Amino acid sequence: MNELVIMKGKQAVTSSLQVAQTFGKRHDHVTRDIEELIAQSGSPKLGNEMFATGTYENRGKQYPMYYMNRDGFTLLAMGFTGDKALQFKLQYIDAFNEMEQQVKSRTSALSPELQFMQGVVDKLADNERNQHRLENKIDGVSEIVATSTMNWRNETSHLISKIARQQGNTGESYKMTRNDIYDEVDRRGGVSLKTRLTNLRRRMAEEGTSKTQRKNTTKVDVIAHDKKLIEIYTAIVKEFAIRYQVWNEEY
Questions:
Q1: DSSP H or E run through 11
Q2: DSSP code string of 52-80
Q3: pTM above 0.70, yes or no
Q4: Tell me, what DSSP letter sits at residue 8?
Q5: Measured on CA atoms in the order 50, 54, 57, 58, is the torsion positive or negative?
Q6: Diameter of the chain by CA atoms?
Q7: Which residues contact 176 (CB under 8 A, 6 or more apart)?
Q8: Around Cβ 112, how many Cβ atoms within 10 Å?
Q9: Which residues pair with 61 in a beta bridge?
Q10: Which tens digit of pLDDT belongs to each residue from 83-137?
């Protein structure tokens, strides 16, 4: 039971990775749900107190995840339904209760002076970690924002590769990321890249372009014919890169 909940700092928490494994969900879907909760709430408290960003290692790579306290887990798990989901929720509640009781027992054993000193040390350590994370985030966001439309093909392709690696480093994750970005281009640009690609390939056929060349023509080539779409596409790729915190990636 204690594997469900761990201690981080002075708080009993679980992780998005553990929740995904316990409830049989895809981890990227769990993190997406958390990000939607934070965005929809518009409350700094939700992001700062209930959820905190973290990373986990898989095959030597670091990937993003979230830590959440009891309140964060309760809010997230509201959307999980079914008999099995109910049992898992009850197990989590028991695990949180048990871990928090252990913390109370250890804290009460300290003298008031030691409790005060421990609090000061913990606060200083938290401040240092937060400052380090903030500096990394500022540097990472600045680098992403600096991406221009001058060399947009190479720069956006590089960012999309980073995003895909954060999602599992597979061909499928790269394809899914691309498709999500294309869908957003369609929405914001009021266009259908699929239709434009069909029309472009038809024109190429009429001009005598080879079948192989037409087949290798992609939606990025469609975007390249429209300055407005280049700007929209570049902006969306930047937003995705910031959302998935690609500066946390380690090579």
A1: strand 11-15
A2: EEEEEEETTEEEEEEEE-HHHHHHHHTT-
A3: no
A4: E
A5: positive
A6: 85
A7: 167
A8: 7
A9: 58
A10: 777 777 777 777 777 776 766 665 555 445 544 444 544 554 455 555 544 444 4
